[in-house]
Amino acid sequence: MAIDEAKLQQLLGKMLGDAGAAMSIGLVILGDTLGLYKAMAAAGPLTSGDLAARTGTAPRYVREWAAAQAASGYINFDPATECFSISPEQAAILADENGPAFFPAMFEMAAAAARDLPKVEAAFRAGGGVGWHEHDPCLFRGVERFFRPGYAAHLVAEWIPALEGVKQKLERGARVADVGCGHGASTVLLAKAFPNSTFSGFDYHEPSLARARELARQGGVAERIAFERATAKEFSGTYDLVAFFDCLHDMGDPIGVAAHVKSALKPDGTWMVVEPFAGDRIADNLNPIGRIFYSASTQICVPASLSQEVGLALGTQAGEARLREIIVSGGFTRVRRAAATPFNLVLEARP
User: Fold this and answer.
1) In this structure, which topology does domain 107-350 adopt according to CATH?
2) Are 1 and 74 in contact (CB under 8 A)?
3) Which sequence spans correspond to the domains of the chain?
4) Distance between CA atoms of 99 and 91, rounded to whole angstroms?
5) How far, in Å, CA of 244 to CA of 200, rounded?
6) Over the chain (351 residues), what is each successive 10-residue block's mean pLDDT?
7) Which of 60, 97, 166, 351 registers the highest number of CB atoms within 10 A of its CB?
8) Tens of pLDDT along 169-224?
């Protein structure tokens, strides 16, 4: 086959950029963990030595780190003063952990995927799975920190009001189950917003539940949230609202899960299913967000599902039509799209 030189160079250029991004994963995590971005955001332009002094780090390492970050365009360098700085936009992405644009947590998730590559390779060869609990703990922290800002921006202000009658129930006082709650970021947000309601968070991963309890105490809502160890097909109780945040696609038997959710809802109850946004065809998702989601799905979500019974392996890009099919197969009769963002699809299911 003849090689088109222009296309070859275009792809090589893309791979060069991707390799630089991959090599930056550890550096972004260091900038986040060591407080380097936050120090720059607070102080303004600094020499690498000044930045090292402010963060209690070794100057020679900081100089090399800062040069790499400037080469990436993540921070800025002024050759006249030999100072490094961070713009308001860069700070919003790299230093503001509670802001809607915060992104270093995604690099934590990427680091976990790299650390767990031998397990995923073994699954590729043998066809088995890799359970959520088998991943590096960096993944659990990254997931919490990445999804929390989006939930904070949209959950109470947009998603709950988009559900038929749910906001009013929560304001009066309702029982809510957050299934697959992980570190409980979504549970705590809901508990803070609706003080008359009570909440149960369920997850099978005990270390995540321990972190969730800690976050609930920090948020002052621990007395209204019970975090319990249970799978999505085993959690107990009867609820006005059952919520799944970015986890249905990870489950081995989502149809069985849907049937269990239906049995746990009050007759007028609601199941809120928040899933990664996706079109129904692969071709619909060949974009930067789809690239991230398909990559995470290959290394994290599909292996998680395949490690469980049934192992349906929906993947993060299942799409609305497939999700509706799963929900209806579990016994629900009414399913509609309630809301959407570039990262999330919110479905409302009623018995």
Assistant:
1) Rossmann fold (3.40.50)
2) no
3) 5-96, 107-350
4) 10
5) 12
6) 93 95 96 98 97 98 98 98 98 94 95 96 95 95 94 96 98 98 97 98 97 97 97 97 98 98 98 97 96 96 97 97 98 97 96 93
7) 166
8) 999 999 999 999 999 999 999 999 999 999 999 999 999 999 999 999 999 999 99
- 38: nearest Cα among 14, 57, 11: 57
Residue 1: the pLDDT is: 82
- What element of type H or E holds 31? helix 25-33
How far apart CA 296 and CA 293 sit, in angstroms, is 5
Domain 5-96, what architecture?
Answer: Orthogonal Bundle (1.10)
- b/e string for 161-176 if b means 16 or more Cβ within 10 A? ebbeebbebbeeebbb
Tokens standing for 89?
């936009």
The single residue listed with the structure tokens 């299934």 is 179
Rounded-to-10 torsion of CA 62, 63, 68, 71: 140
